Amino acid sequence: MRKELKPITVRDTWGTFLAKRLQQIFLGLIYKPVFATIRTSSSEKENAKDTPLRKALRSGQVSFQGDLFRGRFTAEISKELRGMGAVFDKVRQGYRLPSWKLPPEILFIAVRARDEAAKLVQDVYTAIDEIPINVARYVHGLSFEDEAGTVDKLLSKKFKSTVSEIIGVQPEISDRMRGKIKDEYTQNVTRSIKGFSQDETEKLREIVHDHAMAGRPRDELEQKIMTRLKVSSGRARFIAGQETRLFTSKLKEAQYIDVGIDEYRWETVGDDRVRSSHRSLNNTRHTWDHNKDKNPPKSDRGELIHPGEDFGCRCVAVPIVEF
């Protein structure tokens, strides 16, 4: 007699421990060095007698390039510029005024600020270029043993309640097999860290380039990078969820095989997010050993997979036992 057992589902909270650690890694290796470079960039000290325009030029709120003032204009700054003969250009979104018409002290501050802005951009580029190097050094020999161990305990508890108590057999996976699966987990997470840091390095360079070309204030650059930091938090949660599902899938496979459960039924979560290739696999039967499966499930890239192993897969394996 054949019977289906309750599938072991992985909760999103199982990846919380890994997600928090990834967020700390991303913050420390990618964003902190860039923030530190921006905040420690040299800037000319304000003078108590400075006019609003001078203060804005020194702080980077307003910049002057060629014949154009750009940045954030207050009513006082706009009034001062118009008083010097500047005309607002709606197309270029700035005040036009030939440099030879500028008062010498204004021109000096503007040029000084422009040089500092160029140095800041170069310093930030340097900090960004060092990110992949720092990441490679950091992840060398990195271990996620604690995170894997926590998920392993949660999975073992679920396995006991859904399988072992019903069939009366407790899995006895060898330490070598368990260690191998945990090592693969660490390798996959490390690979994801490197991949994200590389992608983020390219994105940060684009942000700095666009900022420099637009001549925007320094604080806006920091705000844009802060936005990327928020994006990284979501990426950390996604990576944690993906790697946790893959890890538990491999561990479940080893446990099912160990207790003599060789077959399963593929089951999707049934919502609109299920990809078409997995939807076609719904309710199909397979074996854990791909070599014994007449029609083994494959990913869209043609790789042999089990539920939870494909990119972003939320499907589960419903174990089939014979009594």
Characterize the structure shown.
- This protein is an alpha+beta fold.
- Among the domains are: 52-115, no CATH class; 262-323, no CATH class.
- Helix content is 57%, strand content 10%.
- The protein has nine helices and eight strands.
- A four-stranded antiparallel sheet has the order 1-8-6-7, with no helix packed on it.
- Strand 2 (62-65) and strand 3 (68-71) form a beta hairpin.
- Helix 2 (52-59) packs parallel to helix 4 (104-129).
- The radius of gyration is 29 Å and the shape is elongated.
- The termini are close together.
- The model has no long low-confidence stretch (mean pLDDT 90).
Distance between the termini: 5 Å
Shape: elongated
SSE succession = EHHEEHEEHHHHHEHEE
Number of helices: 9
Keywords:
9 helices, 323 residues, four-stranded antiparallel beta sheet, 10% strand, alpha+beta
Outline of the structure:
With 323 residues, the protein is an alpha+beta fold. It has helices at 16-39, 52-59, 75-83, 104-129, 131-139, 145-167, 175-214, 218-258, 276-279; strands at residues 2-4, 62-65, 68-71, 87-89, 94-96, 263-267, 285-287, 316-322.
Task: Outline the secondary-structure elements.
Blueprint: E1 2-4, H1 16-39, H2 52-59, E2 62-65, E3 68-71, H3 75-83, E4 87-89, E5 94-96, H4 104-129, H5 131-139, H6 145-167, H7 175-214, H8 218-258, E6 263-267, H9 276-279, E7 285-287, E8 316-322
